Amino acid sequence: MSSIAVIGGGVNGLCIALELSSRGWTVELFERATCLQATSAASTKLLHGGLRYLEHGQFSLVAESLTERSRWIRDAPQHAHWLPLLLPLYSDQRRSPWLWRLGLGFYDGLSLGRLPGFSQRLDRDQALHLVPQLRSDGLLGAWRFWDGQMNEAALGAWILQRVRQAGVVVHEQTPIQSVSSNGEIELESGLRRRFSFVVNATGPWAENLLLRSGFKPKVRLDLVRGSHLLLEGPVPPIGVFVEVPGSQRIGFLLPYQGRLLVGTTEVSQELDEPVQASAEELDQLTALVRFYFPSWPLPSVEELSTLAFAGLRPIVRNGQNASAASREAVQERVGRLLSVFGGKWTSSRALASQVADQLGCII
What we know:
Blueprint: E1 3-7, H1 11-22, E2 26-30, E3 46-47, H2 59-75, E4 80-90, H3 97-110, E5 120-123, H4 124-130, E6 139-150, H5 152-165, E7 169-171, E8 176-179, E9 184-187, E10 192-194, E11 197-200, H6 206-212, E12 221-231, E13 239-243, E14 250-256, E15 259-263, E16 267-268, H7 279-292, H8 301-304, E17 308-316, E18 330-334, E19 337-341, H9 348-360
Parallel strand pairs: 1-2, 1-11, 2-7, 4-13, 11-19
Antiparallel strand pairs: 3-6, 4-6, 5-6, 8-9, 9-10, 12-15, 12-16, 12-17, 13-14, 14-15, 18-19
């Protein structure tokens, strides 16, 4: 029986290991620290199709993500659920109301009927009734639509439990020093292991592992830090999807476990820098709250850093800025080594299936 080493205990690595095991391969997973404690633990907690990706023409990514969003909610309803979102329309926003209407039409259509309801146009009073905290100045109305939300830690634990139950041997606190194209891995301890195939699914560290092993990958990564705040206050029952003032970026004001989740920033950083929210990012996030929820009781500056969390997102380099860049995953194979670059939480199981299909044609 073929043996496969999966390197990386984030959501992509775990889903790949589970899919490979379900197809009959013997799988071992290696994680340098603790599974699901890095990038996979610091998202915006959304299972979404990527409404903002539509304006960049990424229709296949959106269609795949919408399918996977419904799949997560169906398979793990105790950890994932539908979340209504309000998209307020203002007289001073950059994108016109008709553009949002067109985008939401595509979003509903690509969902193929897997929705609790279609998007709905609301007038100004209806929007303020749903979210009384919302800035009323210049408000024209809103759209209400649906996306998914997860309890990230619980859903990750559910996946990890299934991985272990499937017979995958999980090695935590086991850093990998290098990989080779013949299926061999070298642990940081100096021990060498040989497998039929190795999958490099180390997320932000995928390119670095290859460079450290003497490879020159064709795919390159841009690393982007996304920071968030969790605030106490009168949390609305519906999330709010907004334009960041003065920018083309999108921001979120979401109910999450009794608090308001505010995100997200997009700041380039190096792999060896600490993954934590900067003072500038905290200013950006609080400015977003002040702009859209002007009466929100914000904490003191000293408290803000204790309410923030940040994650590092690996985005395949394509010359675009982080907001416009695709979140599609790319695979690169050298001999018996397959590396996965990019990807996102929502589509991690679809990626796992694609990896397994490719290996099934080789082994």
